[in-house]
């Protein structure tokens, strides 16, 4: 051990060459963003649960807080 921080060495950071995206790749990224936006908009307008318990899903996260039983199912 030399006692030096590896981040303080004189080695230069590797140069990463960024290639330009092809038109097909740009189109695919735009379509994916449009799909994600549509899914987010649909989820925001969906109906909310009424009278359910708060917090995380107890069956998924092991959070058995209501007398050892889940109240959501």
Mean pLDDT: 77
Shape: flat
| Helix run count | 2
How many DSSP-defined strands? 0
Q: Proportion of β residues?
A: under 5%
Query: Low-confidence stretches at least 5 residues in length (pLDDT < 50)?
Result: none
Cα distance spanning the termini = 58 Å
The largest sheet, given as strand count, sense and whether it forms a barrel, is: none
User: Helices and strands: which structural class?
Assistant: mainly alpha
For this structure, the quaternary state is single chain
Helix residue percentage: 25-40%
Name the helix and strand elements from N-terminus to C-terminus, one letter apiece: HH
**Radius of gyration in whole Å, from Cα?**
25 Å
Please give a structural write-up.
By secondary structure, the chain is mostly helical. 37% of the residues lie in helices and 0% in strands. The chain has 2 helices and no strands. The chain has helices spanning 23-45, 58-61. The radius of gyration is 25 Å and the shape is flat. The mean pLDDT is 77.
Task: Lay out the secondary structure.
Layout: H1 23-45, H2 58-61
Question: Can I get a quick summary?
Answer:
By secondary structure, the protein is mostly helical. 37% of the residues lie in helices and 0% in strands.
């Amino acid at each position: 051990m030399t006692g030096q921080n590896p981040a303080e060495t004189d080695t230069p950071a590797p140069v990463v060459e960024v290639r330009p995206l092809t038109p097909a790749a740009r189109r695919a990224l735009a379509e994916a963003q449009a799909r994600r936006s549509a899914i987010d908009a649909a989820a925001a307008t969906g109906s909310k649960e009424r009278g359910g318990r708060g917090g995380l899903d107890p069956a998924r996260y092991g959070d058995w807080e209501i007398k050892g039983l889940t109240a959501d199912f």
